[in-house]
Amino acid sequence: MFPLARFRDLIRIFIGILFLLGLVSGRAEQSPVFDIPRLEKITMDGRADDWSTNGFRVDAMVDSDGVARPASEFASRFRLGWDERGLLVLVTVHDPTPVEEKNDAQFYLRDSVEMFIADQSGGQEAFQVVFVPGRIAGQRELRFHVYDRRASDELKKTPIVIEAARTADAENCTLEVCVPWQNLGIKPETGREILFQLCVNDASPTGPRLQSRWYPGNSYGNTRLMYRLRLAESPSSAVVVAAGASYERLRRTQVGVVATGALTGQVITVRAADRELGSGLLIADGDGFRLHLDLPMPARGKPYGLLTVQLAGQTFTTLQLPDADEARQQAFARAEFNFTPCVFTGETFPPCDFQQPSLVEDAVGPYRISKVTFYDADFNVVTTAEKPGRYGAITEICTADGKTFKRFNTLFRQIAECKRKDAQQRFTVELPPEVGIDPEVVREQAAKLNDYLREEIVAGFQRTANGAIVLAGLSETAAGSGPTHRQNNAQARDAEWWYRLKKQTGEIAPLQYLTYLPENYDSVSTQRWPVVLFLHGSGERGNDLNQVKKNGLPHLIEAGKHFPFITIAPQCPSNEWWNVIALRDLLDEVGAKYHVDSDRVYLTGLSMGGYGTWSLATRFPERFAAIVPICGGGDPEAVADIKNLPVWVFHGAKDRVVSPQQSQEMVDALQKLGAPVRFTLYPEANHNSWTPAYATEELYTWLLQQHRGQLPAH
Description:
Helices cover 20% and strands 31% of the residues. By secondary structure, it is of the alpha+beta class. It folds into four domains: 1-17 and 239-320, Sandwich (Immunoglobulin-like); 31-236, Immunoglobulin-like; 327-413, Immunoglobulin-like (Sandwich); 510-704, 3-Layer(aba) Sandwich (Rossmann fold), CATH 3.40.50.1820. Strands 1, 5, 6, 7, 10, 11 and 12 form a seven-stranded mixed β-sheet that branches. Strand 17 and strand 18 (288-295) form a beta hairpin. The radius of gyration is 30 Å and the shape is globular.
């Protein structure tokens, strides 16, 4: 029988520890405070010897997708303490297959340990450190990267200092860290609270990255949702059980439990509302225990709500699953829908269906294809493919609940069937050196490789729409056009064709946008005004124009800033990217509606809007007098089209969301062409480099000096 006293300890340990795909099931202020003890004589040598059994222990961590992996595959745990120097952290990881990232700005994408530290709940003084242990050939040393999010100008004057060491072998790593108090201006004393969270990233050579997390929900960068640590003389009881849950391919609900301690043979039960979903025994696994339960999916329209996870009949934590019906709709939206084949011969269009009909039925139930409308390259409705070339199909799909969805597919009719065995094409084949085949062997066996490539190309036409898109684009490209790039290649042509068709058929509406006019716009009816087209980031997408006011020029204008130019700020629809054809049409609309000086049209954007700025400018360089991309990126191969266009680029050197290398590559490509490009790299800025950029008065002076078709004014 499970001792009542032991269960009370578990209740005290686990209350508030809620895991599930980064979702928190309770309010942040209800999360517990964990006491971490003062420790003496801890040396930063990457060894646990001087810790003995001391420190606040987190001995159980479960993957964020709710999978309790065998300890032989992966296991992690850590301890916390403090002294007069700083916060002390000891992390141990068992991982027999190390996979590490070389780019220091993207350490977190592969095997790594992430720590987040802040001075107080809701505070502005915080930073993140990502450690890579150095366990692979050529990288046999500990590396770490710091993301400084401190708001205080005084603190920012001093670089963040980290003391760290590690020991490692083929399967294990011990990481020891001291985070000095001076980084956050903290005076260490008993009773002082700080904020902390930790996750261990584990990348597979072939599969997705997994995370073992210790924080109450999707609290990345949010100091209101991080765990509270209290400096004390003795530690809180160890965390010895963790649980998580997720939907596995929409066919089952999976719940994972990881535990340590004297729990042999104890029963874990999972309940939803007033019914039991399933139960199982904790099984021994290394020096701990684990359990994986496969439970039914919630019925459509009947969500589980909170799952309660019980040990010996008593609840020790709750899990909040995402809405199952919403997850089903998302899976349905992602499901591949194709014609077979997409590249065809003859006048009869091929049949169509989902690639995996059974998975679609799992998501939305029975469905039927109710209508297919075909269009030729000139956007005319057709019933047969009378001539070779591009075609498009709009398919209407009805689900059991009466809803109708549409799918859009590109098709290509070829002149005659490609017969694989009779094809005489020859390709010049050079295999990548990573394949490990002697180049001389490749040359000698060129005929065999050609047979293989012919088979793959013809088979590829049968499998996916990519072949139809490429062939349609090639058929519409004039000889002598030269190499294409991202803005005018087959995929770009396909996107433009579909935009025009969807606009014609009413599938998409024109972009909605905010307009800000100069104060004296109406005073002189004959005056022509410069225009700045501002493109927002991904977080402002949707159908609420107020969202566009959150950052950049609209934010400054709403705060009272006056500009001597017309500002146009469109909103990108939800779950979409900036469409350069839609933006071109918007510029046409603005030019017809307002008193616009067409030689002084400027373009700027941040983050996703920075990418949109590069894309729009390289696609239609003749439309602009200057551009200002901020923390974005583009296609370096396309910059020849804007080599005479004034460009001022901004980025934060510590940007974790969009690597500053993205901007650097575009700047380097322009400089090689002798282009008039300026680059401002803020050494301490993270992703919000648009804040100092748009606060730079010189930017607007420079911008308004530029005229289309004239030499740049500096």
